[in-house]
């Protein structure tokens, strides 16, 4: 899965789960400040992302995540690690 495909999936999840306008979901958007994603919402988002990997995601992997691009990068790294 490419980073662009991951961004599209994350955008769909944020739109479908939290009713965030897709136009607001850009790589530089800050989850908390720009998209109003709080810690409970972040856990819900991680649950929604689980099918992308087919396994549980460790919340620790997302500690440094601040932007949509950070989420893409973490997921991309986890997918690459899984494939290796």
TrEMBL record:
Pfam families: PP-binding. GO terms for cellular component: cytoplasm. Residues 4-79 form the Carrier domain. It is found in: Cytoplasm. The keyword Thylakoid does not apply. 4'-phosphopantetheine is transferred from CoA to a specific serine of apo-ACP by AcpS. This modification is essential for activity because fatty acids are bound in thioester linkage to the sulfhydryl of the prosthetic group. The keyword Ubl conjugation does not apply. Keywords: Cytoplasm, Fatty acid biosynthesis, Fatty acid metabolism, Lipid biosynthesis, Lipid metabolism, Phosphopantetheine, Phosphoprotein. PROSITE patterns: CARRIER. Coiled coil: none annotated. The modification O-(pantetheine 4'-phosphoryl)serine is found at residue 39. Pathway: Lipid metabolism; fatty acid biosynthesis. GO terms for molecular function: acyl carrier activity. Belongs to the acyl carrier protein (ACP) family. NCBIfam families: PRK05350.1. Carrier of the growing fatty acid chain in fatty acid biosynthesis. This is Acyl carrier protein. It comes from Pseudoxanthomonas helianthi. The lineage of its organism: Bacteria, Pseudomonadati, Pseudomonadota, Gammaproteobacteria, Lysobacterales. The gene is acpP.
């Amino acid at each position: 899965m490419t980073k662009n495909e991951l961004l599209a999936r994350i955008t769909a999840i944020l739109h479908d789960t939290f009713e965030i306008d897709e136009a607001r979901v850009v790589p530089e958007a800050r989850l908390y400040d720009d998209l109003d994603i709080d810690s409970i919402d972040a856990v819900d988002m991680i649950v929604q992302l689980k099918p992308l990997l087919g396994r549980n995601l460790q919340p620790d992997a997302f500690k440094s995540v601040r932007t949509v691009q950070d989420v893409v990068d973490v997921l991309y790294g986890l997918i690459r690690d899984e494939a290796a």
